[in-house]
Amino acid sequence: MTSHVLPLRRLFSVVNGGTPTSEPENWGGEVPWATPADFSGRLTEVTTTRRTLTPSGARSGSVVVPRGSLLVSTRAPIGYVAVTGTEMAFNQGCRALVPSVAVDVRFFGYQLEARLPDLQAEGLGATFLELSSEKLSSFAVVAPPLDEQRRIADFLDSETARIDRLINLYGRLSILAAERAQRVLDEAVEKCTDLAPLRYIVRFREGPGIMAVDFQSDGVPLIRIAGLNKGEVTLNGCNFLNPDKVARQWPQFRLRLGDRLISGSATMGEVSVVRDPAVVGSVPYTGLIILRPAQEDVDMEYVEAFLQSSQFLRQIDLLKTGATMLHFGPTHLSQVRAPLPPLDEQRGIAVIASEALRHASLCEELTNRQIALLGERRQALITAAVTGQFDVSTASGRNVTEGVTV
Rounded distance, CA 97 to CA 133, Å? Predict the structure, then answer.
């Protein structure tokens, strides 16, 4: 394949986007208006967008490019690429590449997708990175003859579609496993119809309001939201407090082995267990709620299962409050009603729930591994095709995807 390496400006005109003013007459018309949120890290064709402009809005505050242009996101994030499937306006988070010579835009879209790290490395800025018009227009690409561009693009359309179907299949399998686990857990919890206030089953204590002025370089760990990791409480993202001050002001918030923490704010409803002795004695930050049994015949693994059940989630969804960010605390939890079967039944429910969730977690791990492998293979395939590492006219789906476990 005879190819030239050329800057994009030799093949495309670089066009900047914009956003009209908020006047109603600028918005809600028939002109699609793309932002980086309308496309992803894989080359896609975009024909519809989340927001639209009127013709006057497009003229006054944006710009319309023809069908068959490339849109490149140039900030937050840099390097996502899409082909316009219709005439389209776009905001200042994108730049358009409008062909100025005969090209197959798919070929260059795939090439830019494969070179995402190179595009991101060209970003500049003090507060946020942005890929400038100059940097984009100077970006060097491989430019084979037009007929070769079309052959490679046709080949990649076919092969990436096959890989994408497999990726979507694995993603669906993971979702189905999670849904099945939730059904099993819910059925186990809902077998008991005798309900009691949750406050009779567990005690709640929300972490104290601690100011940044109390932080120091070492001492008693202060567990943050980042410390709730895959069902366990860790020291990730923790700050530290003066041990003497903790002993005087917050001794009742010291964590113990087996304590459960539930997040009432950012990762709302996530439950984690204190299993690591290194965490014992830590103090949870506000928004994290300590759960401990309120009576002897309570199995906390059963409580944990209930807190992951649809029955609990439905109730807390009605109770949570907040003007800017929804949250819940001990007051809301005290209004929740929970099944309270005998202790041996609690333990049986906990075993069923644990096994169902373990199976779903294993399925997620395996499918994520396959999705990652397929994604790597997809990227390698695109790179090899656009750089001429193999002849696409003789390649077949069987040999180019060889080595991928499916």
Answer: 10
